[in-house]
Write a structure and sequence with these properties.
single chain; 395 residues; 16 helices; 12% strand; globular
Amino acid sequence: MTIRSGNTDRSTRLCRDVLCLDDFEIKARRHLPKPLFGYISGATETNASLRQNAEAFQAYAFRPRVLRDVSKRSTETSLFGKTHAAPFGIAPMGISALMAYRGDIVLAQGADQSGIPMIISGSSLIPLEEIAAVSPQAWFQAYLPGEPDRIDALIDRVGAAGLRTLLLTVDTATLPNRENNVRAGFSTPLRPGLRLAWQGISHPRWTTGTFLRTIARHGIPHFENSYATRGAPIISSNVARDFGRRDHLNWNHLERIRNRWSGKLVVKGIMHPDDAARAVDTGADGVIVSNHGGRQLDGTASPLQVLPEIASRVGDSVAVMVDGGFRRGTDIMKALALGACFVFVGRPFLYAAAVAGLPGVLKAADILKTELHSNMALLGVTEVGDISADYITRA
């Protein structure tokens, strides 16, 4: 089943003047109601970590090599035994179906057609089984409480859906202070009112193409993937219960998950080399160096800053991946040079899906692949694996 977000020709036209991923953000700011755009773009408290994520790339500069035949260069990358078209994928993003019609499915389809992986969010408003039916090679991100029965049940559900890569996000011990969301008018549960009604009236393309279309065809959105059973409606006062008891989660639970889950296991939210080493010792197949896009502990270092130490500590034994602030092919090359083998990109893909549906996601992926392909030539390499610390220096 292919989801077509509104008029495909119009969506394609909306992408024509998009030259870089940042252009999708500009369009999304106009297209989305202020509370929804604020939810995507904002972070926590002072947004210090969000800014650091973007600024960290400026601390490094390239040392290109010249007079090399780079005519046969390729962006293809192998990860967990599968070859991908490029060394990047789509990060998990909650409530995507509120931003774009059937947003998670659109992101999954775009990833498949682009030859890259996509991670289903544990805060998705679409059941993971529906997404897996469209994209069985997708990964699943779990937000788990420290409750063994709920852990076991969700793991069994993911396996029954046919998904083979499980990602445990570990930096969400409690809900952060996202005052940015409050100022923008966003809340969980979503509270209907005059302010929200006006946002709907003043953003008619989103209202008719995403919101009303969703309600008419699928009813009030629920959190579908927090546990083995269906969660609360997004407008319910019981929503907060779906996010409880995560402060109980500990290393013993990770060991339990490893013993129960037979597929690939990735731990996301690692920012310290000791934690990376312990995750490896517990049986993780990979780690994602991440500060949750700056959306958890404000003032946390950027993933790029801590990546070299973590890669040096565990890089030979597991896949070391990274996310946070990636917008350019050059950003990806800097992460690869610093020890990552793969990168995940979040907000830009959701902006693209919101603005132009599947054509937007395909356009965003093509922009990054094209930039990376050109930049590899200018750096003087032909394979992604050739990008090393020899090609980078402190700016």
